[in-house]
Each structure stands twice: as C-alpha cells, then as structure tokens.
Design a protein that fits this description.
The chain is α/β, with parallel strands linked by helices and about 130 residues long. It contains six helices and five strands.
Length: about 130
C-alpha cells in the first residue's frame, strides 16, 4: 500500500516549525536567517523568488546538506536558521523534516509557500 503524500506532509508538519509569511518577512533583513527555495528552476524562471533566497532544487537537498557528500554546499554549514519554501508548502514541509533529521538545528518553513508569499504582496525578486 502506498502512503499518501498528504499523510507524509501532515506527519512532517507535526514535527517541524511552520512560520507565517508575515513572520518570514521580518527575517528577510536578518543575516542569521537564510531562505532556501526548493522549487525547480522552471518555477523560479516563471514566478521569481523571495529576495536573496538560495536556490536548492528539492532533489539535491540532502546531498547539499551532507558535509561528506561530494555535492555539499557550504551555505548549509553556516550557523543560521534555514527558512525553506516551495510553491505551496508540501515539498518544503518534507524538506524541512529531512534537514531537521539530518541534523540542521534551526529549520522552519513558510505556511502556504511562495504562493502565499506572493498573494500577501510580499517582495519578489527576479531569479538570478
């Protein structure tokens, strides 16, 4: 039997921190908060991103977090709070849970994802 992805997302949300778009916006100017956009490049090109967000496609997350991986990215070794988001907060819930399980201490994700961010009129940057 296949576990429905909605059940996986609900289970992840029960174990992680979720923040509102308003709360997330207050973190934008704080250097100890890093926004991680886990959408794929086509989504970024189509709709932009949260200003200064680091793009990490969901399929690479665990490889980029792991310092022993040949694909490791130094951004994930920083002492910061990682704010994950995707389009609607399903992938980011799973990503936040995975990052937490891998040992990142300060992780959260944005309720409603980028869609909620854009709908709330929050700032959007062109992809870089």
């Amino acid at each position: 039997m296949i576990t429905p992805v909605a059940d996986m997302v609900a289970a992840a949300n029960a174990e992680i921190t979720t923040i509102s778009t308003t709360q997330a916006q207050t973190y934008l100017a704080q250097p100890d908060y890093l926004f991680i956009d886990i959408r794929d490049p086509r989504e970024l090109a189509r709709s932009g991103k949260i200003p200064n967000a680091f793009s990490c496609p969901r399929g690479m997350l665990e490889f980029w977090i792991d310092p022993a991986s040949p694909y490791h990215k130094e951004i994930f070794a920083r002492d910061a709070t990682f704010v994950f988001y995707c389009a609607s907060a399903w992938r980011s819930a799973l990503a936040t849970k995975a990052a937490q399980d891998m040992g990142l201490k300060n992780v959260c994700h944005i309720k409603g994802g980028f869609s909620a961010w854009a709908k709330a009129g929050m700032p959007i940057a062109s992809p870089s």
